[in-house]
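User: tokens in, sequence out, please.
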């Protein structure tokens, strides 16, 4: 079993807190992606798990064993770096087998394990080549093979696809997903690329400024973002976010702003509250009067088009199958289904949740 438990992990560099009280329980067999913008602390957290960056406070457990102060070489973990870190003078076979030689394994055992791993990764025909004779994707697979040959408790990967071109990155994503499924091992994977996170992860941990914003399945973090940051980070284009006011009119709860009048289907009276209204571009459609604005320009994405509109002072995107039927300068009214309306507290940025019952004002928390 390779369950990883991170409990209030903190890392400080002088006065700067790079990772701040992060707690995550990574189940055996998870493909957890640490996602976030550059500088958010995700790579530092991965290095803390690996033992390459000592914790300032908190603890880390692997398979119920406290490894907080265990040296990196004694942790049952394998790290795959962004740079591949292959030995240029060694063949593919010797690169893959290096961790076993370092542990004093027999030549027979090393040959057997290298052959087994090469077959899994499709490297059988490349074992006598050197890294300079390989493509970027092949080098990445050799780096994976060197980690895989150890049969570790978990794999740690720090942006391993960032050096590949777009086409090869797509193919390697699929290979990694297949490999994870075949091995059933725990993967912890760092990236700033939301497409990698959404397509590969069983769960995503989204970080911002050293703090954990949300942990959940790709569907959960996309469909039910826990904060304005998550809503604005995920999606292409990201969720439309409009400063608005939650208020009551004639006993009905509504969200109002310049060019915005969205009923929530709730009844009751409440004092006005500043909120952020969120609607994903693909959930908007032309027609209706929930949002009223002017089209600024339309982008052709091939099978789809994105209309960039100005609603009051807010920029709002509409994404629909091509042709969208709008042109720059058109006045447009937009609508969406009530279940696709998201609300966030303006001050804290956290999501406001509608409880199932009762469907009245106090249910907004």
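Assistant: Sequence out:
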């Amino acid at each position: 079993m390779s369950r990883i438990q991170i409990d209030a992990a903190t890392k400080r560099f002088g006065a700067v807190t790079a990772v701040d009280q992060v707690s995550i329980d990574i189940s055996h067999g998870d493909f957890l992606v640490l996602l976030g913008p550059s500088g958010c602390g995700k790579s530092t957290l991965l290095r803390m798990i690996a033992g390459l960056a000592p914790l300032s406070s908190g603890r880390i457990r692997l398979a119920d064993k406290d490894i907080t102060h265990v040296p990196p070489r004694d942790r049952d973990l394998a790290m795959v770096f962004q740079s591949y870190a292959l030995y240029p003078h060694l063949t593919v076979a010797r690169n893959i087998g290096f961790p076993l030689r370092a542990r004093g394994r027999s030549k027979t055992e090393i040959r057997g394990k290298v052959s087994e791993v090469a077959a899994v990764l499709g490297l059988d025909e490349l074992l006598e080549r050197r890294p300079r004779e390989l493509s970027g994707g092949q080098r990445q697979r050799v780096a994976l093979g060197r980690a895989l040959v150890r049969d570790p408790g978990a794999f740690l990967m720090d942006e391993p696809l960032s050096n590949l071109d777009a086409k090869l990155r797509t193919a390697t994503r699929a290979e990694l997903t297949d490999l994870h499924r075949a091995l059933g091992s725990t993967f912890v994977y760092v990236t700033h690329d939301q497409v990698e996170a959404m397509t590969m992860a069983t769960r995503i941990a989204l970080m911002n400024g050293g703090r954990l914003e949300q942990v959940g399945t790709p569907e959960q973090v996309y469909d039910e973002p826990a904060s304005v940051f998550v809503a604005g980070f995920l999606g292409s284009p990201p969720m439309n976010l409009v400063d608005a006011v939650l208020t009551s009119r004639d006993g009905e709860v509504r969200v109002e702003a310049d060019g915005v009048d969205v009923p929530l289907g709730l009844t009751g009276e409440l004092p006005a509250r500043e909120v952020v209204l969120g609607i994903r571009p693909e959930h908007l459609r032309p027609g209706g009067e929930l949002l009223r604005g002017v089209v600024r320009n339309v982008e052709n994405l091939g099978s789809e088009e994105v209309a960039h509109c100005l609603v009051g002072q807010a920029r709002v995107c509409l994404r629909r199958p091509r042709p969208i039927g709008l042109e720059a300068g058109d006045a447009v009214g937009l609508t969406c289904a009530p279940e696709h309306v998201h609300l966030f507290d303006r001050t804290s940025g956290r999501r406001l949740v509608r409880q199932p019952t009762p469907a009245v004002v106090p249910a907004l928390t």
